[in-house]
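Chain entry —
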Amino acid sequence: MTDMTGRGKTLQSLEALQTEAVSFVGTLAPKEKGATLVTLSGELGAGKTSFTQGIARALGIEEAITSPTFVLEKIYDLPQDTGRSFARLVHIDAYRLEGEESLLPLGVDLLLPDPKNLIVLEWPEMVEGQLPTPDVAVSITVEPDITRTISYA
């Protein structure tokens, strides 16, 4: 779990946001029961996918990480030599989801019980009530000067 809960931090660029994500993922460890759920909130272009790219890089994923806006979900098997205990990174973009059970076709009910899964979900407000309380809720705000403020809850 993260010790950054509640703090806001100003970041100067998307590269800095990715570096922040690398530090952030270092604070996470699998739970005994259930997947670790991280939600990312912020307006379009705030940097949610950039943050996920930083997480993926820290976990040893070398392939390009793109927003799953149209495919909705991407699952990456993690290399075992990274020293991390997670086996998979599950990246979900809920922006286009509608309805009370819109996550079910993605198999989230099968992904959530597995402690080897790190689930990063963009746009959690689109699927409110369909997920357990996240382990960490990340909020990214773009400021008028184009810096970004990131906070954790």
